Every structure is written in structure tokens, then in C-alpha cells.
């Protein structure tokens, strides 16, 4: 009787196998994060020229997500965040000085 109770105490449930837990490989998540970092940089750069109201926040969000997911392109994500912030500051500057939401050259 003691052997049965000892085996009942020592048996633990088997750990879940990799097939049972739906997880993505880390390299695949980093690839997506790298793409987000590049997209953040490109959107931030484009936002300084056109559609800064739309592209600035997109650059901020994508850059933040890329950093949160552990991108290998950390510099591009940080540049995307910085350019997204510049886009919004540029929008505020244009709105206060000209009363417009777009660039124009000349008088």
C-alpha cells in the first residue's frame, strides 16, 4: 500500500509538448519586428513631406511595436519614432504659423 501512495505522490503531469502549445518561433517574430522597424522609418520619413497627420502616428506606433517585439534593427525603429514625433511637431508648427495642414512654397 505504501508503494502505491508513493508513486501517486511522485507522478506529475507530463509537460506540454511543442505541438500542443501554439507558439511562433522567435526568429519569425523578429522578422516581423524588423519589417515594422523599417516601415516605421519609411513612414516617418514620408510623413515629413506629405500626410504628416496620418503617417506620423503610424510611424510612432510601428516603431514602438518593433522595439517591444525585440527587433534587430533598433536604430531604425528609434529613427522611425523620432521622425514620427517630428511629423507631429511639424504639423503643429504649420498649423500655428500658416493656419494650414500642408506645405506650400512661395507667397
Terminus-to-terminus distance: 98 Å
Sheet/helix structural class = mainly alpha
Average pLDDT reading = 79
Largest sheet: none
What are the secondary-structure elements, in order, as H or E? HHHH
Low-confidence stretches: none
Q: What is the CA-atom radius of gyration, in angstroms?
A: 25 Å
General shape: elongated
Q: Please tally the β strands and state the result.
A: 0
Helix content: 55-70%
**Percent range for β-strand residues:** under 5%
Number of H/I helices? 4
Give a structural overview.
Helix content is 67%, strand content 0%. It is mostly helical. The radius of gyration is 25 Å and the shape is elongated. 23% of the residues are buried.
How would you summarize the topology of this molecule?
Blueprint: H1 2-10, H2 26-47, H3 52-68, H4 74-97
List keywords for this structure.
single chain, about 110 residues, mainly alpha, 4 helices
Amino acid at each position: 500500500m505504501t508503494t502505491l501512495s508513493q508513486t501517486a505522490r511522485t507522478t506529475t503531469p507530463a509537460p506540454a509538448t511543442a505541438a500542443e502549445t501554439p507558439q511562433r518561433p522567435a526568429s519569425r517574430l523578429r522578422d516581423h519586428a524588423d519589417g515594422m522597424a523599417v516601415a516605421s522609418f519609411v513612414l516617418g520619413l514620408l510623413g515629413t513631406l506629405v500626410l504628416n497627420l496620418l503617417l506620423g502616428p503610424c510611424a510612432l506606433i510601428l516603431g514602438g511595436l518593433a522595439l517591444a517585439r525585440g527587433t534587430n534593427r533598433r536604430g531604425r525603429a528609434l529613427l522611425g519614432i523620432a521622425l514620427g514625433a517630428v511629423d507631429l511637431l511639424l504639423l503643429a508648427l504649420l498649423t500655428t504659423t500658416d493656419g494650414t495642414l500642408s506645405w506650400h512654397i512661395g507667397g
